[in-house]
Amino acid sequence: MPCGAKAKQLKFLVSGSNQFSRINVSHAAAAEALKNAKELLARGYVDVKICTPRGQILVPDDFEQLEKIAKRPDPGTCEADDDRKVPEDGR
Q1: Residue 82 pLDDT greater than 60, yes or no
Q2: Residue 47: left if φ>0, alpha if ψ -120 to 50, beta else—which one?
Q3: Residue 43 near residue 67 (C-beta atoms within 8 A)
Q4: Residue 8 confidence class, pLDDT cut points 50, 70, 90
Q5: Are 53 and 18 in contact (CB under 8 A)?
Q6: Is residue 34 part of a domain?
Q7: Which of 23-32, 46-55, 76-85 has the lowest mean pLDDT?
Q8: Is 53 helix (H, G, I), strand (E, B) or coil?
Q9: Among 56, 63, 64, 81, which residue's beta carbon has the most beta carbons within 10 A?
Q10: Domain ranges, residue 16
Q11: Residue 51 within any structural domain of the chain
Q12: Alpha-carbon distance values, 22 to 6, 37, 55, 67 (Å)
C-alpha cells in the first residue's frame, strides 16, 4: 500500500474481569494496550489478556513480547514524511 493511503487501523484488544464485571477496550497502539493491561492488573482484574491485530492472545507472562513491539517505530509512518525538509527560503 502506498505511503499516505488510508487503511483500516487494526486494533489491540485488552480484556479482563473482576468480581463484578468484564471489560474490553481497544487501542490503536501496542504501548497503549500494554499500559491499560498493566493498570487493570494493578486494580485487581484477573484473566487480563491482550489480543494483537494478528490475533495472537497474550497473557501477563507474555506481555514482554508486546513491550518489544511497542518500542518499534510505527510502521504506518513513512520515512519520506519524517525526512522531508523545508527549504531555507521558506518555499
Answers
A1: no
A2: left
A3: no
A4: low
A5: no
A6: yes
A7: 76-85
A8: coil
A9: 63
A10: 12-83
A11: yes
A12: 33, 13, 20, 24
